[in-house]
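Running this now, will post back.
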Amino acid sequence: MKILILSCSPKCYSTRRLREASLKAGHRPQVLNTLKFSIFVERASPQLKYNNRPLSRYHAVIARIAPSITFFGTSVVRQLEQMGVFCLNTSQAISVSRDKLRASQILSRHNVGLPATAFVRNPESILPAIESVGGAPVIVKLLEGTQGIGVILADTVRVAQAIVETFQSTKQNVLIQKFVKESSGKDLRAFVVGDRVVAAMRRKASGDDFRSNVHRGGTVEKVTLDPETERMAVTAAQIIGLRVAGVDMLEASDGPQIMEVNSSPGLEGIEAATGKDVAGEIIEHLAEQVLAPEVDLRKRLSLGSGYKVVEIPIVRKSPLAGLSVRNSGLRAKEVMILSILRGGLILPSPAADEHILVGDTLVCFGKANTLQSLAARSGKKSR
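Update: finished.
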């Protein structure tokens, strides 16, 4: 398999390890500088050139996009997607992960721990926002910051207000976030590949710094995550849409809280701390995905005129509540239950004797008018 590795730093540890793992698995990797691509858009013929020459064909792409070139880098990945090349992390997922506010908004709809966060533009809303996340001390962070840069701990409300106003005066977007005192100076990183955590480490800050980033002199140690923390890490990566991710979590007293979902996590710290061949895990997963790629089921099944894929929440007054799949009568109405979302679990292709419970969400495929009727009878709109 011919693998394209997009990286502006061919000699950095992560890029070298991915290339080595690819060669070890019998593949043909090639590292190309993301910034040397040219994108050409025309009817029915998306094209890319590298160093002004047509790009040769590849089976798969691993994108190592630096934060400073996110816009151009994701544009290159998006073009490769249009050319039919499998991309390990999609352009959409990378874009979402790079926008801290957008990622937090998407995660907030789901059952994952998050530190209280506020985003305001009106100067008169700054003080109420600080109070809404628990008051001082409070974290103020730049939306575009990475590796601990642009993350400030404000000890008092007035200091926090001054920092936010200063950033806003320079047209910078900032988040106001609750300071998790019990996790000060340390955090967890879970390295997610596919549907599992392949390695995890605890990062500790150097000296009195509350930021635990390795790039700022922090140390790392291997850690074994409990099942709930591991589930949360995998869920967060899947919600954002990343097949490979570094999920950073704070160890709060009321459970782990997602701090960031990284689309280009470094390999040096995690492999050194755990002794795991993380690069090898990534390449193995990539090969599996290329051989049997996932499809966007919602788009594929919705192509037929009059058919849709929708989610139907089951409330107490729903006529489906308490019935088995067999007795629900949905098959007679040409409606298929693809999966049942129950708490943090997904029950794919539920058996005929599986009961539908209040609080479940049914992912169904069928005629649009039938599904809309079912959703209306459940008291909520389908989505």
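The first helix runs from residue 13 to 24. More later if anyone needs it.
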